Automatic annotation (TrEMBL):
Residues making up the signal peptide according to the UniProt record: none
Function (record text): Putative oxygen sensor; modulates the activity of FixJ, a transcriptional activator of nitrogen fixation fixK gene. FixL probably acts as a kinase that phosphorylates FixJ.
Chain ranges passing through the membrane: none
Domain EAL: 24-277
Protein name (database record): Sensor protein FixL
Origin species: Marinobacter vulgaris
Amino acid sequence: SAKSAGKDQFLFFDPVMQSDLISMHQTENELRIALENNQLEPFYQAQVDAQGGLIGAEVLIRWNHPERGLLAPAAFIGVAESSGLIVPMGYQVFAMACTQLVAWSGCEFARKLTLAVNISARQFEEADFTARIASILSSSGANPELLKLEITESTLARDIESVSLKMLELRKLGITFSLDDFGTGYSSLTYLKRLPIKQLKIDRCFVRDVLVDHDDKAIIVTIIALAATLGIDVIAEGVEEQEQQALLVSVGCESFQGFLFGKPESQEVFEQRFTAP
Ligand code: C2E
Ligand code: MG
Ligand code: MG
Ligand code: MG
């Protein structure tokens, strides 16, 4: 009706919403420039084994914004997704990860370090995803066995036949897969068996209260048992306390990531921390 249309219109011109639209539009334009001007910088967060030994790192993007300083993904991933810029951004991050792997290949601390790169569902479903990844791999000379793609259950929820085909093609190249934020989406257990998944990444939300919440502990124990049955590795994310890690070790978790072992760090800081005597 005219009345509700009027109401919608009023809502549309709400000054708060309008300024949200302007700032979204502005963020999108600035992000486009950021991609061209190398303002995106990969940070690295350590992944360790039960003894605390470095086994890998997750690549987490930061934006060196010329006016606003260093921005975390929460400030721009949403706009990147809705504008589609997440696709070129994703390739840029993957290429930077490959370049870093090659640069670290001579360093003792990083010899067998795997780098985990986040891939959005939007990027994964691009028709030429496999070809683009293959081309970046070959032009960089990075060892695909050291690259892990972090996908989420939302990626699997798309056309499963084509997702499955793509994952198998990438696996043939040597790439491995980790299922990020595991337990928060709707995974069919059938997919876990069918798809070439190397690792389940237990979401931070189960780890946070694991010491006091019996349900969270039960969920973690169940995920670890399921993974063991299927021959899949497990890593826990968001480990902040020694006691959390001790409990996770006691129920069979073998890899860990979280502030207890280091925050996401610039390449320089990460390198320094692990090469220092
Ligand atoms: P994610 O992939 O689940 O990454 C883990 C997030 O948890 C990171 O936030 C990390 O800093 C944070 N974290 C790690 N350990 C702890 C901990 O012990 N405690 C707490 N409270 N937080 C912890 P960050 O870097 O802000 O990234 C947020 C999300 O943005 C990521 O979640 C991922 O979904 C997305 N993202 C980051 N970089 C990229 C990228 O290059 N490409 C894509 N597509 N997404 C990315
Ligand atoms: Mg991740
Ligand atoms: Mg995660
Ligand atoms: Mg998460």
